[in-house]
Amino acid sequence: MRCPFCAHQETSVLESRVAEDGQSLRRRRECQKCQKRFTTFERVEGPTVFVIKRDGGRVPFDREKIVTGVIKSFDKRPVSIDLIRQLADEVEREVRRREVSEIPSKTIGKMVLRRLRNIDRVAWLRFASVYFELSDITEFEKLFEKIGN
């Protein structure tokens, strides 16, 4: 493991434990050259799942794209990054449980929306406005009415 501070390749593992999600391993490391400490995470990587984009293109599934999108929807909202990562972990587990090699991006979006609605309705509305590709105010008003139910 390369040190993120000095790029030295020799590090020592000081502590290892199962991370909160139960799906990854958290390791505390120390660089043998600069003595700085840092944390790494290991997770099991299953078979590659490809996401079918709206334009028909295919890209490998990347949970960090979910994290990035959800962070944008929570801009200036009172929510922790840990909750966002937990949401992304849940979506990733649901995708992998389906045991498919391809999944439409629309399906992943629905998984995210289902979880967001229970966490923060403003974030849900922001994410949904991008997901549904709203183009005018009347579409936005219809979506706003939908969340009120």
UniProtKB/TrEMBL annotation:
Its cofactor is Zn(2+). InterPro entries: ATP-cone_dom, NrdR-like_N, RNR_NrdR-like. Binds 1 zinc ion. Residues 49-139 form the ATP-cone domain. GO terms for molecular function: ATP binding; DNA binding; zinc ion binding. It comes from the Bacteria. GO terms for biological process: negative regulation of DNA-templated transcription. A zinc finger (unnamed) spans 3-34. Keywords: ATP-binding, DNA-binding, Metal-binding, Nucleotide-binding, Repressor, Transcription, Transcription regulation, Zinc, Zinc-finger. PANTHER family: TRANSCRIPTIONAL REPRESSOR NRDR (PTHR30455:SF2). Negatively regulates transcription of bacterial ribonucleotide reductase nrd genes and operons by binding to NrdR-boxes. Belongs to the NrdR family. This is Transcriptional repressor NrdR. It comes from Candidatus Amesbacteria bacterium RIFCSPLOWO2_01_FULL_48_25.
